[in-house]
Amino acid sequence: MSLRLQLPIFLILLFLGWSTSTKAQDPRFSQFYAAPMHLNPAMTGAFDGSWRVALNYRDQWASILQQQPFRTIGAGFDMRLNVAGNDYFSFGLNFMGDQAGESRLRQTNGHLSMSYLKELTGGRGGNAQYLIAGGQAGFGQSRLDYSGLWFTDQFDVPSENLDLSQQSAEMLNNSNNPYMDINAGLLWYAIFDDNFSLYAGGAMNHINRPEVSLIDGSEAFIPLRWTIHIGGELPLTREFSLLPAIAVMDQGGSNSFTFGLNFRYTNYDWRELAVRIGTWMHLANKDSGILSDALTFAAILELDRMNLGLSYDINISPLIAATNSRGTVELSFIYVHPEERRVRVKCPNF
After folding, report:
1. Model's pTM, two decimal places?
2. Which superfamily does 3-337 belong to?
């Protein structure tokens, strides 16, 4: 491939990397409902059981970046402890690793999560309502490998050749100092029946605005991210229900809107097999306004205490000419260990 053809592709990659690092510091999951503690610290302990493991994997832009796509891995563990009546204290650990593009920009962080679940209303024959307040404190770090990049002072315009032996004048560091990160959130939900529930939550991430600059003599901060998510489960019949949801995020002037629903069927067997199939739309703001970014198709298998999820994003943004509509593959896994004794607290199907 000639250098004339490489330049437009390089500009596309540069745009992707720049928009990700400056406007959308935090990676997101299309299956946001399957990454609970990443979505909202108050989701810590929001499950039916004694402890939970959640794993997530996302692979994006492989159609353009080939061997260096954007990859995001998430892992979480949390457990609940009864403290009084139907009130619970929960704690957990949450880890996230993200690598972006040819520069191999890596973001890693880990948090200790804590929450308190308070029963608001309950009792026999009536609906139950709960409020959860959660917080996270942890550390993160960013790393950069610029050995695969070239800069303007390494490009000879007359000959259209690169001379990578020339030293770049860029003052880039391979990593920044570890930073502390603080998050907080609230979640309210109501249970009306086994397959009828509503919930609403909100979170604020990077409350302390961590400093993450990789350039000597400059400052860069992770912008505050706020999240609002609303959803529930609406019964159609005893076996069929709908799980609509919406998640709205804002960070540093960038907005993300994901909305849609999963259609759920369960046979109520002993092992409680259930299947979910759904469609989701993702919108994002650009200079020209709010634009459609991706259409997601998701399938989730619930088997006993495990949820296995697979989704694929079809790219419908202006980048469609480069991606040929190919977008993102995402996998999720959740295991919830049952309580050792009978409890009255119930949580929604997210």
Report:
1. 0.82
2. monomeric porin ompg (2.40.160.40)
